[in-house]
Amino acid sequence: MIPEIGLAALWLAAALAVLQMVSGAFALKAAEGAVNPLAIYARPAAVVQAFLAVLAFLMLLWSFAITDLSIKLVASNSHSMKPLLYKLTGTWGNHEGSMLLWVGVLALSGGLLAGFEKRLPERTMGATLAVQGFVALGFYAFLLLSSNPFERLPVPAAEGTGLNPLLQDIGLAIHPPTLYAGYVGLSVAFSLAMGALLTNQVNPSFARVLRPWVLGAWVLLTFGITAGSYWAYYELGWGGWWFWDPVENASLMPWLAATALMHSVSVLAARDALRTWTIMLGVLAFSMSMLGTFLVRSGVLTSVHAFAVDPERGAFILGLLGLYIGGAFTIFALRAGAVAEGKRFAIASREGALVFNNVMLSAILAIVLLGTLYPLLTEVFDVRVSVGPPYFNPAGAIFAIPMLLVMAVGPLLRWKSDKPARLQFELALIASLVIGVIALVSFFGQFPLLPLLGLGLAAALAVAAFLPLRGRNLARVPVATWGMVLAHFGIAVSLFGMACEGAFSQERLAAVAPGGTEQIGDFAVTLESVTPVAGPNWTAIEARLAVSRDGGEPVILNPQARNFWSPPQSTSESALLTRWDGQLYAVIGNQAEDGRWQIRVWWKPFVTFIWYGGLLIALGGILAIAGRVKVDVKRRAAVTKGAERRADVEALDVASPVPAE
Amino acid sequence: MRSRLFLWVPLALFAFFAGVAGYMLTQEKDEFVESTMIGQPLPDFALDPAFGGLPGAAKTDLIGSKPRLLNIWASWCTPCIAEAPQLEALQARGVEIVGIAIRDRPEDVANFLGRYGNPYSRIGSDRISEVQLAIGSSGVPETFVIDAKGVIRYQHIGDIRPEHVAVLLAELEKAR
Amino acid sequence: MIRAVVALLLALLAIPVMAQDSMPPAPYAYNQLDDPRLEAEATTLMHTLRCLKCQSQSIADSDAPMAGDMRHQVRSRILAGESPDQIRGWLIARYGDYVSYEPEVSATTWPLFAAPVLLLLIVAGVLLRRLGKRRSDAGDTV
């Protein structure tokens, strides 16, 4: 019964998506100020749809929780012996379930938009909901027609096949849901952008509606990518945290577009400039998340993280991609010319710096996109090439370095126009930090160029991030500005971690007999014993490594080599020793014929800063949202205080626009 | 306002991508990495016997009066079991097959041949995939056609199905 | 195809227990060179070579036996005095550009290198258009 309820809910939700789309479209036919009688159904349709789609997802979650083996999806992806947590997370550890999660979040955010967003003009809101319904409808169709998660088996299976052991990890609970929520947040930004473009409402008040969605999506993407990177780092067993794999790039590209969008939305909200560009980025950001879905699920590119590869589904997603993105770009080309040019500004101004940042981010996005798709392109001509870190790192750095330098000074500039001479001290400070740190580090040894530049930039950015607070009363700095400071500081922290990992990592591979000791950096690693252990659905050999730093008290690490029996696969469970200044990463390998054990140990100084930085960036985004919401709530409260004070409020609005980053 | 043509650029780029992606979806995805050594002479090698029953294999064993097959295989490889009857059929047609056993043990090789038949004239033991890498092979099983001068003429990737026997015979004929 | 199925299983990275050989790894698959300078050279190179049996992983990041054998080749050739570029060239001669994550400028890869240059030009053009000409009329006109 449970899966049938889920399926019925999904069909109903799809029907409501049609209603939402049609009813929303009628709003466009209404005269200015009037409400079309057929347009009133869009909002309730979106809200009810949200309940239904979430219900469908909960039904699947329940089926996985009780391991209902009469459902094909459960039988082929779960196992009754699996720990409950992994039964639950296994719900989205496969194609159909993850699509259902995606659709659930999509409907939920559509419902939130319809339920709570009252600031937009009715026509724009109608168009937005129509687009949102259209997008949702495509995904419902995809689920119902080609990837039904609730399909029953003719005869229930006796036992499930199990879940890929690499996915049996807490990372699966965190990484995909946040990433999907981020992607889906971008779909709302897309709908809003299309709504505004169709009704010619690209203006600061539209930007203020758009901003929380972009910020929210961006925070989730930042967090999702950070979590995914750390997950891959400890799970794959070789200490790599980013390999420019197609699937990794697929998650980075929407982030790059969303980062650019977030900044251009701020310009639009504060200064009414960059109108067309903001719309373009809104379309681009969602295109990139759709493209990611396509690349991951169609199997056209080879990736370590790919799952559920199926060309037929690929064709379906490509069709959706063509419909939404092709359609959006067509509307963009037809209508963007009608969007009036925004306010002008000088080259040396906050807007100027933000435009520079936007252009550079777009260039990095173009490089990543090209590098990711290039192997696909050459395969048309039957030529196979690989594009990896040796390409992406330098090609990306060409644009990232100037961008980061401008990021250091941009927040110090005034809106509209400024004199660089005013910032002599800050510019000198930043330049001397970059040069000083690079000179200092080069003095101690030979390091690769990019990590060296990264260290110099990280030092300068860390200091520069706080310069906007200089000379201000800290208690009166808006929360959103704190968010910006924190996020920019997070970039510096993350860059520092990446540079240190690149420049100072140490590796020790050795065959060690029990009792033997290996030295790596300041650490002495002793293999005390190797013993077999068993888990709920695996057996393993576990090493006991005593790790002592500079002869200090030893700490025990227990890396495992696990063998799962369903499905039959082996994985390396690394053991990590985290210190403030880095991480020791230990893996146990096979036993050699002479009885010694292969161990791999890395000392990665400050590697954790990569993810601390990512968390800081996300936290900065959260503060920015909180700050905006606070200002917004204040403003709404002020508006409701009545007509006699309206004049004052308007004066307030003009006098103190929200200080944007 | 700026020229309108500029606004069509994103759509054009997207259409190009959609075209390429759509075309690629219709193509069968092969994960095989083809050797770029076709047309090149075999690299020098001399491998020890893979087990007591047959001599080892060296480059010189593949040079002579007629083209031969060089079969890269292993006793631990499941598709190698599937292709065993086809190798036998080829041998029955008078084709000389030189084997290279990858990362294998003598007892396992003997065991495999005892169970699935022995179509080889000699088998070299490549314990660290040295020769495999040198000829651009990326997996087991793979079969190369080597002409009388020791030049690699053709590569068959994957197990030999019954329908491939004729293809290989034709390639051997071409290499003559 | 059975091999395709095996490849698919391999796609899940963890190697299926079934199709794995039991041989000890090649000497330099999991052991470092004694000379730290040579080992650093080898490591840098290994991070840019593709594991042919894996899905998008370098040979320095894989437990696949073939990756181990390739690492052995790299380390032993470095030890024998070959330069990283020679070794990369040796592998490209056997497997094509696919084996190297570091694309080299060639008839098939030039667009990869033309793109950043082109992008730089576009970026300069856009910035000049967007920011440069405003210098003259920086007035607040809508």
TrEMBL record, chain A:
Keywords (A to Z) from UniProt = Cell inner membrane, Cell membrane, Cytochrome c-type biogenesis, Lyase, Membrane, Transmembrane, Transmembrane helix
Q: Which domain of life is it from?
A: Bacteria
Q: What residues does the Cytochrome c-type biogenesis protein CcmF C-terminal domain cover?
A: 318-628
Answer whether the UniProt record assigns the keyword Kinase to this protein.
Answer: no
- The Cytochrome c assembly protein domain extends over 92-298
Q: Which residues form a coiled coil?
A: none
| Pfam families found in the cross-reference section | CcmF_C (PF16327), Cytochrom_C_asm (PF01578)
Which regions span the lipid bilayer? 51-75, 126-145, 180-198, 210-232, 252-270, 277-296, 316-334, 355-374, 394-413, 425-443, 449-467, 479-499, 606-626
Identify the GO cellular component terms for this protein: plasma membrane
Tell me, which GO biological process terms does this entry list? cytochrome complex assembly
NCBIfam families, alphabetized: nrfE
What does it do?
Answer: Required for the biogenesis of c-type cytochromes. Possible subunit of a heme lyase.
What's the family?
Answer: Belongs to the CcmF/CycK/Ccl1/NrfE/CcsA family.
Q: What is this protein called?
A: Cytochrome c-type biogenesis protein CcmF
Automatic annotation (TrEMBL), chain B:
Keyword Protein biosynthesis, does the record have it?
Answer: no
Q: Which NCBIfam families match?
A: dsbE
Identify the keywords attached in UniProt to this record, alphabetized. Cytochrome c-type biogenesis, Disulfide bond, Redox-active center
Protein name as catalogued: Cytochrome c biogenesis protein CcmG/thiol:disulfide interchange protein DsbE
Q: What subcellular locations does the record give?
A: Cell envelope
Q: Does the keyword Disulfide bond apply?
A: yes
> Which PANTHER family does the entry link to?
THIOL:DISULFIDE INTERCHANGE PROTEIN DSBE
Write down any Gene Ontology CC term: outer membrane-bounded periplasmic space
Q: Which GO terms describe its molecular function?
A: disulfide oxidoreductase activity
State the organism of origin: Erythrobacter ramosus
From TrEMBL, chain C:
| Transmembrane intervals | 110-128
Gene3D superfamilies, alphabetically?
Answer: Cytochrome C biogenesis protein (1.10.8.640)
Q: Which Pfam families does this chain map to?
A: CcmH
InterPro entries with a match to the protein in the record: C-type_cytochrome_biogenesis, CcmH/CycL/Ccl2/NrfF_N, CcmH/CycL/NrfF/Ccl2_sf
Q: Which residues form the CcmH/CycL/Ccl2/NrfF N-terminal domain?
A: 26-138
Signal peptide per UniProt: 1-19
Gene Ontology molecular-function annotations: metal ion binding
- List UniProt keywords, sorted A-Z: Cytochrome c-type biogenesis, Heme, Iron, Membrane, Metal-binding, Signal, Transmembrane, Transmembrane helix
What are the BP-aspect GO terms?
cytochrome complex assembly
Gene Ontology cellular-component terms listed? plasma membrane
Q: Which PANTHER family match?
A: CYTOCHROME C-TYPE BIOGENESIS PROTEIN CCMH (PTHR47870)
Function description: Possible subunit of a heme lyase.
* Family to which this protein belongs: Belongs to the CcmH/CycL/Ccl2/NrfF family.
Protein name as annotated: Cytochrome c-type biogenesis protein
Q: Which organism is it from?
A: Erythrobacter ramosus
